[in-house]
Write a structure and sequence with these properties.
Number of helices: 26
Shape: globular
Number of strands: 30
Number of domains: 5
Strand content: 15-25%
Structural class: alpha+beta
Radius of gyration: 34 Å
Oligomer: single chain
Helix content: 25-40%
Length: 888
């Protein structure tokens, strides 16, 4: 077990369970539609996001991927949601779903688990400081805190609700360090580590509150204890942040690759519109609406709770009374008093200071501080500070039974009735808040990958994790797992044999040919890594496309491309830091003989270690070169043993067939073959790459496409002249895509007339390249004129070439193109590409038609000159035209 929860006073635990049942009564029944008996869930502000995120994470985990990239989001263009958003709550929900719970039931159970654990961790922490009854009161106030209930039932924000679980662990660590530094540091570091994995903003908010708490507590401590506390607290923070560096470090470092802060703080998400008025902090108002600009437009609660605040103020007065009482006895020596009562008083005073600071930061009075504290504007809503304020207020209130007993002369019998009465008051006044405003559900069919692509699932309305400069995809333009191959002259060729897609991985098998650019319909991000026939290549965004898809420059004769969403160099440092801290911490505990502490955290450490290893291996693409792949083929057969012709549709594993694994099959011939035809039969639903070998030398390659009929299918190939003239004595048959069951039924060569039904490899798609001259084009076309007006030159996806009589060195050009299409403009001098520019439409023209664009010619093209200009559409409606071209 991660921690032991000793039962202690069983009545206290029983009452805690009753409080949990009361606050989660709307969850325990797992709400269902009375007619269909289908599960539903709380329909708050973000309820549908939770459902889609769990579904997306479940899809990724089922595919063996960590889910940092969700392919079905953003209309199928993919989204790095869990690169930046804490994955822990959704991983738990996805795990529950994969283990058999219906998706809505998995979400509801995640809600219950978040609430239950927050109450248990608070109780477990507080009973070590203030006993069972102080722990019961603190847990009740924490669970029934208005903002806690707002997060769950109004905002339905799963990550922020889950974040309530971990601050008690950190506070336990800070308390325990005085008695057992190692145990306190270990437990506190786990709390620090888990917070950013749950919600980065909550980690930031509670971090500011804890900084104020630690500073105040440090000032109140006796001089001889200050240094030890400061050092232990710093070690705890460093270890915790180190353990979670694999997540938060790349999340922060890679913000500059996406819209990020500009989108997060734009419009209604500007913090200036969402300060809390002082009256709202103790208001009884409750609503299920949103936060607006000004008091009159707020339709949700921003209260800390009158009862909770009152109890907190009573505890403050009791603490001050005990200090005055001690001063009368000890005088100034009270500052050096290390006894347990004074330690509790100092702790509670520091909690009061932290709660006051957080409440202040939520109010409009703190607006000057918001301009000073770095990155605080990313929290968007100042009222989010009510989370740490509620936490510190609950801890403060939990000191009531203990301090009241001490003030009354150590009358411990008072603790139970005081805690019970206070807890009942909190539950009574907040009872009506702990229920949902409405319920809803997403149809199970809408949680499938294809349906999520249609509805365009996002993370928030701000689209903050789109690539910078990319347009928000439209529902009418889904990605559809499209892959295009452009030659160096931007001609489109059908070179992609097959593609296999996962959430964060794309495997492509290509026909060998000339060098070019592979464009994959997934948003570019620096986290994408690529391996091309065993060589690492850095993907780039495709120029002149609205959605910034991935572009890969691949060399000639490329066979296989593997794309994986992984880590940037800074992100890899984060992985290394987390692994180093984990191993160094475990080694320290073993060397120091702290096996007891190690036993308590072995499960958490094991899960983290497995996660780091999983993230590392799933983020590094690895392919092998063609030669290495051939060397890895273990199954071999002689061609003479498979000379008997098999009929189409015979069983793939019939007696006499050469069955082979995914590594492939090596066929040996008795002599060098110069025949012009090759006939063979293979399993009909698989792609195969045929590699013709003369010894170890590759003579050429061909591809077998599937026929999709039962059993095996016969293939006849007319071989290219360079293969038959050179000759070959071995043939490697390498599966490139299929069902995992491969076989060769027969194979023989011939040297007769051309085969009637021979497979012909076609590279060029039917996209005609239009050619025209500069002189033939008009020199001006009016904006808004019809795209097919006489004089305009219409063209297809193959593009248009504009020829000049002699090289020109103009620095600017003007041209008119259809208003809603995206293009690349390429500048050539002879056959050499000397410059490239993208054209992105600013906005659709009312009424449509042509739009004039002025653009600077790339410096290299100006310096070298250019005699040909090529315009290639990269995205559009299929109707393209060039109206005019003018040089400056």
């Amino acid at each position: 077990m991660l921690f032991r929860f000793p039962l202690g006073n069983r009545l206290a635990w029983l009452l805690l369970l009753l409080v949990l049942a009361a606050v989660t009564r709307d969850i325990i029944g797992f709400p269902r539609d009375p007619n269909t008996l289908e599960y539903s869930t709380f329909a708050g502000h973000e309820w549908i996001y939770n459902q889609y995120r769990i579904a997306g994470m479940a899809q990724a985990l089922a595919e063996g991927m960590p889910g940092r990239w969700l392919e079905s989001f953003s209309h199928g263009w993919g989204y790095p949601l869990f690169h930046y958003t804490g994955p822990l709550p959704y991983t738990v929900g996805a795990g529950l779903h994969l283990f058999g719970l219906e998706s809505h039931a998995a979400l509801n159970f995640s809600w219950w688990l978040a609430f239950a654990l927050s109450g248990i961790t608070m109780f477990w922490t507080m009973r070590r400081m203030f006993g069972d009854w102080g722990a019961l009161l603190a847990s009740t106030i924490y669970l029934f805190a208005p903002y806690h209930l707002v997060d769950m039932f109004v905002r339905t924000n799963l990550v922020e609700t889950t974040a309530f679980v971990f601050p008690p662990l950190i506070l336990y660590g800070l308390w325990k360090m005085a008695e057992n530094p190692v145990r306190g540091i270990v437990v506190g570091a786990i709390g620090v580590a888990l917070l950013p994995l749950t919600h980065m903003l909550s980690a930031y908010l509670i971090g500011l509150g804890l900084a104020v708490f630690c500073l105040c507590y440090l000032l109140l401590l006796p001089l001889r204890e200050k240094l030890a506390f400061a050092l232990h607290a710093c070690v705890m923070a460093v270890l915790g942040l180190g353990l979670s560096a694999f997540f938060w470090l790349p999340a922060l470092a890679d913000l500059n690759a996406v819209k990020g802060m500009d989108a997060i703080t734009a419009g209604n998400y500007d913090y200036k519109y969402h300060f809390v008025y002082l009256s709202q902090l103790i208001s009884d108002y409750w609503g299920y609406g949103a936060s607006g600009k000004g008091l009159k437009n707020d339709y949700m609660s921003f209260s800390l709770g009158k009862v909770s605040v009152s109890i907190g103020l009573i505890v403050l007065m009791l603490a001050l009374y005990l200090i005055v009482k001690k001063c009368r006895l000890l005088g100034i020596r009270v500052l050096a008093d290390s006894a347990e009562p004074m330690r509790k008083v100092r702790f509670l005073l520091a909690c009061f200071a932290a709660a006051l600071f957080c409440a202040y930061m939520a109010s409009y009075l703190s607006s000057p501080l918001w301009k000073i504290i770095p990155m605080v504007e990313a929290t968007q809503f100042p009222w989010r500070f009510l989370f740490p304020a509620s936490f510190f207020l609950a801890v403060l209130a939990g000191g009531l039974p203990s301090l009241l007993s001490a003030a009354a002369g150590e009358r411990n019998y008072l603790q139970f009735p005081v805690a019970l009465v206070a807890s009942v008051l909190v539950v009574y006044f907040h009872w009506s808040f702990a229920q949902a405003g409405s319920y809803d559900r997403v149809a199970n069919v809408d949680l499938t990958r294809n349906e999520m692509q249609k509805v365009g699932v996002w993370t928030t309305n701000q689209h903050e994790f789109l690539p910078k400069g990319a347009r928000v995809p439209w529902a009418s333009e889904p990605a559809k797992r499209e892959v295009k191959f452009y030659t160096e002259t931007m001609a489109i060729e059908s070179r992609v044999l097959s593609s296999e897609w996962k959430s964060g991985e794309v495997l492509l098998n290509l026909l060998p040919g000339s060098a070019g650019t592979v464009v994959v319909a997934q948003h570019w991000h620096p986290g994408w890594q690529a391996s091309v026939d065993g060589v690492s290549i850095a993907p780039q965004p495709f120029i002149g496309h609205p959605y910034a898809p991935i572009a890969l420059e691949v060399p000639a004769n490329t066979h296989q491309v593997l794309l994986r969403y992984g880590y940037t160099p800074v992100g890899k440092y984060g992985l290394f830091i987390s692994l180093f801290v984990l191993l160094a911490g475990g080694t320290f505990l073993l060397v120091k003989g702290k096996s007891f502490e190690l036993k308590r955290v072995w499960l958490a450490a094991s899960v983290l270690f497995a996660t780091l290893v999983f993230y590392w291996f799933s983020s590094n693409p690895s392919t092998v070169s063609l030669n290495e792949r051939i060397k890895g083929v273990e199954n071999e057969v002689k061609a003479s043993s498979l000379a008997e012709i098999k009929q189409n549709r015979t069983s793939w594993n019939a007696p006499g067939n050469a069955v082979f694994p995914e590594s492939g099959l090596l066929v040996h011939f008795d002599k060098r073959i110069h025949d012009k035809q090759l006939q063979l039969s293979t399993d009909s639903n698989d792609y195969h790459l045929l590699v013709f070998l003369d010894g170890d030398k590759t003579v050429g390659t061909e591809v077998l496409r599937p026929r999709y009929v039962p059993g095996v299918s016969n293939h006849g190939l007319d071989l290219p002249a360079h293969i038959s003239e050179h000759g070959y004595n071995r043939l490697a048959i390498l599966p490139t895509s299929g069902d995992g069951f491969y076989s060769l039924a027969h194979i023989f060569t011939s040297n007769g007339a051309k085969l009637k039904n021979a497979q012909v490899v076609m590279h060029q798609q039917n996209f005609r390249l239009v050619e025209t001259s500069y002189e033939a084009l008009p020199k001006h076309v009016r904006t808004g004129s019809d795209w097919q007006e006489p004089g305009n030159v219409r063209f297809s996806e193959g593009g248009i070439d504009v020829q000049f009589k002699a090289p020109v060195q103009s620095s600017r050009i003007q041209l008119s193109l259809d208003h809603n299409d995206y293009h690349q403009v390429l500048f050539y001098l002879g056959e050499e590409l000397v410059g490239r520019k993208g054209i992105v439409p600013r906005s659709p023209l009312r009424g449509g038609g042509m739009r004039n664009y002025r653009m600077a010619v790339p410096e290299q093209a100006v310096a070298a000159g250019f005699d040909k200009l090529k315009v290639v559409p990269t995205m559009g409606d299929g109707y393209y035209s060039l109206g005019h071209l003018k040089l400056y």
